[in-house]
Design a protein that fits this description.
This protein is an alpha+beta fold and 218 residues long. The chain has helices at residues 2-13, 17-22, 24-48, 117-129, 131-138, 141-146, 185-188, 193-217, and strands at residues 81-85, 96-101, 106-112, 177-183. It contains 8 helices and 4 strands, in the order αααβββαααβαα.
Length: 218
């Protein structure tokens, strides 16, 4: 992790093509470290969640190059490295596990971020029919230790097609069913970072399995 953090810190200060080209060897070394780390996590997650196959880490790691065509921010490179581990890799529509490495802003998380309308409706329908099953997962002490709340934007009222007087309407308002928590650089660089990830993802596995089962039913 030290190699990755060091490179990204310097990239934050020098986010331009000239510097990147001059330091391409450092980027390639950092990328290889992230791929190795991702492969290690794939193997660990596969033990926790049988849905996750032994993926190629290249299918999980996001590109560092930014798409600036429609952005006011024209800096060419992301200043973080991230991998999304799910069946189908980083482009999957299924719930998965995300690791984000960024100096001063690393985090671990997962679930489903901004699903398409059919997937979102499938999840909401399952929660509507079996709210207690979902609550049992997200309100368990071990889960809340890492993931205290559902992240992202929420509707101000009931989603279309669901009754406004539903007792657990708050569970249907999220636009994403995603969870996460920040990790400081000291922990990222510490000897037990993998252990922390495995502990957190063991808790996350239950909600991911619930979300993916919801998609499979609908």
């Amino acid at each position: 992790m030290k190699t990755i953090i060091s490179f990204l810190k310097d990239l934050q200060k020098n986010n331009n093509k000239e510097w990147f080209d001059a330091n391409r060897d450092r980027y390639q070394e950092s990328k290889e470290h992230m791929l190795f780390f991702t492969e290690l996590l794939i193997q660990e997650i596969h033990k926790i969640d049988p849905e996750i196959p032994l993926l190629s880490p290249k299918d999980c790691l996001f590109r560092i190059f930014r798409d600036v065509r429609f952005s006011n921010d024209k800096t060419p490179y992301k200043t973080h490295m991230g991998s999304f581990i799910a069946r189908g890799g980083r482009k999957s529509k299924r719930a998965g596990y995300y690791v984000h490495i960024e100096p001063g802003n690393s985090f671990l998380g997962g679930g489903i971020w901004c699903p398409e309308p059919p997937e979102l409706k499938a999840i909401r329908s399952e929660i509507f029919e079996h709210p207690e099953d979902f609550k049992d997962i997200i309100e368990a002490p071990g889960f809340k230790k890492y993931f205290p709340e559902i992240q992202g934007e929420k509707l101000k009222t009931a989603p279309k097609g669901f009754p406004k007087d539903f007792e657990e309407i708050e569970l249907l308002r999220p636009k994403s069913y995603a969870f996460g928590f920040q990790v400081n650089d000291q922990k990222v660089l510490g000897e037990d970072f993998v252990g922390l990830i495995v502990d957190a993802f063991q808790e996350l596995a239950r909600v991911n399995q619930y979300l993916n089962a919801s998609l499979d039913k609908n």
